[in-house]
Amino acid sequence: MKHEIKNWLRSKKAVIGIGATALLITTGVFQHKLNVKISNISALKSNLATCFSRVNQSYTAKVIGDANSMYLETGFMKTTEECLSEVNTFSQEVFASSAVKLGQALNALISDIHWFHERVEESSSSFSDKDAEVILSNLSDRFEKLEMKYDNVDGELISKEGSISLSKSNLTIFLITLCFIAPLLLLWDFAQRRTLEQRNKYAEDEARKRMESTEAIAHNEVATIIKDALEQNKLVYCSKLFTQYHTLSALNPLKEDSTRIQAMVTPENLTEQAIDDIWNQSESDDSLVLSAEGETRVEEESYSGAVAQIDKSLTKVVNHLSNKLLAEGVIIDLDIAEDLTVRGEDEALEQVVYNVIMNAVKNCQQNDETGRVSISAKRVGTSVIINLTDSGLGFSKDFLSAVNGLADLDEHMPLSLQISRELLEDAGGDISFENTYRAGEVCGSKVQIVMRSAEAQSKRVASVQSGTKKEILEAMKQQTI
Prior knowledge:
This protein is an alpha+beta fold. It contains 15 helices and nine strands. The protein has helices spanning 2-11, 13-64, 74-95, 100-124, 129-212, 219-232, 236-251, 272-286, 310-320, 322-328, 346-365, 397-403, 409-412, 415-426, 469-480, and strands spanning 297-299, 307-309, 330-336, 341-343, 371-380, 383-390, 430-438, 441-452, 458-460. The strands form three sheets. Strands 3-5-6-8-7 form a five-stranded mixed β-sheet. It is rod-shaped, with a radius of gyration of 51 Å. It starts with a helix and ends with a helix.
């Protein structure tokens, strides 16, 4: 799951970067709006406090009995009500319809203040001291209620300001996070590009070393270099196409004459007389009598193609892998008969042996015991058999099923062994895989390679009979009767 998320992030990196930038801009805009709203609420609180302080001044002048105070004048009190009206309008602009409770409380406060001013003006025209005391007592009770309503409105404003400030703080944290994410995405992209450049440089160096090397071409090594180079540049389908259709042809080019297809056809205009002439010619050349004293031998048709030496190829591959075998702690035993030659190219044989030994070393790495690989080669009739056994964990059931045609070969067989199998089939050989057992349990694996010997074989002739083809066929029929 972690690997899938990492791959998804890597593939959606550009989308994430654009989204982070858009969120960064959007968050900045929202934060600016919240700052403006907080400033407006602070101004609203300040204006409301100023207006209510004017009401307090009028009440104080009335309580001390200063009849000539400017705070008791009608113009002053009307200005106070206009101040409150402006505060109400400003509140509607700031909150619109999002603060219904605040609007109702503010309207109730303004209405009560208007009633309070009317009572103050009525008490100023009263001539009775007793009536003045009653009115003053009523005004005091009324002013206390005004203070409570003012505290209610001010509390609502403080609550709104706190809620918006909390939202601003959260946006600030989110903004800071985005400010870190955006550079990190850039650094991630730079690091990936740098890593890709280094991996491409490494692939180029490996390819250059492989081309400059005088050693035998390791086809699976070359295939790995090309395949990794394609995949690390996200050319996945190119890699699959290379693996499926071009690996063998690119790594094991065939000779021009081996790719030709010879077809024997009978021309339509071949006459019956021409067919008779061909038959008569074959009868005249068909009988070959060899007369000699003692034993008579007929030599098999000689082989004139490429010849590979078993001991030379095996020794060369083992020497090439000596450092790796030593590092892995794998012991290798060789039991090779002398002067064994097979039909095929030296490079193809070396590649097959290299792939099989590397697979055996890999099996030994998965076993806790000391790894041991044994290689033997001998000639049996017209074939040369190479047996390679190891003390590893053996082949899996899926692998053996695939080898026997019961499962997908491409899925369960490594590419190196597939290449080896194709190389052997091109040379007229074969390869088989099986596990070795001890006390009913798997104790290793065995790979057997069978190739045709390049040495000429002679056959002893039991009898020689002269005659035409028709006569010989008639004699054979008589013998079977």
